[in-house]
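Lab manual, section 2.4: Encoding a predicted structure.

Procedure: take the sequence of the chain (307 residues), apply the prediction step described in section 2.3, and record the output as structure tokens. A sample record is shown.
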Amino acid sequence: MSEIKLAAVQAAPVFFDKAASTEKACEWIARAGKQGADVTAFGETWLPGYPFFIEAPLSELWWEAAALYLENAVLLDGPEMARIRKAAKLAGTDVVIGIAELDPATKSSIYASLVFISKDGELLGRHRKIKPTHHERSVWADGDAKGLKVHERPYGRLSGLNCWEHNIVLPGFSLICQGTQIHVAGWPGREPETAPSDPVWSRQILLSRAFASQAGAYVIAPAGLRLTKHVPERFRELSAFEHTGQSAIIDPRGEIIAGPADGETILMAEADLEEVRKAKSACDPAGHYSRPDLFEVRLEGDRIYPR
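Recorded output:
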């Protein structure tokens, strides 16, 4: 398989409504399938939406939003994910989608998870964000390393991480060690024209381009979209800023080949594994461009570098 079609879905979910968000996700998956996408990716916790209210001061309304967000988190084996899996099969496209995953035991904790689904509707894997960033810790629990895996697909090796996991190096390096070729970098969706003075903001383009170059891999960077009009009127005062999208697709050199995108759209780009091989022949951080005599990396106790 030479030419691979990559798709990044940039669209607003229906906030605080997992059923409606699921139906909308299925519609976008169908559209991507009609465009011939081999893999279709959504942003961080796209289903049922990024918890925008975490930036607001605590109040009775904040707690109402938090409770409603928990109510709309989804189970990995629940009806919402069953619908997404069916949609992937009908569209004939692999799907990588960010979900607010409900803890199946307590049903009182949420993980920021990326779910990998095959074009046959099978669950390939699930990665829980290992450390929520800053205010996210008020609504998301710590994940684990079980999902830090590269999935062998007919078109290449597929991986993914959430947002600032690209800023803490070792999760990404673990995927590089497994030979990732096509990577999904899921973001809540915001790339200000002028960098804010705050030390914590997404830097989605910078970090996605850096990972593409380091890994010698294509990066699909789907970003969320949440304008004021997308927020239920009751909760709009909790919105400190908008998530404006700016999804992108990046080649193995770290160059943007599609996007940044505005508004609701599907960003499409063609990938070629020959370009991946070119990049990796220049720099394989876990192979010929490494120093296994100096460094060792273990993942949950198992050594992944050097092999």
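Check your result against the sample. The mean pLDDT is 94.
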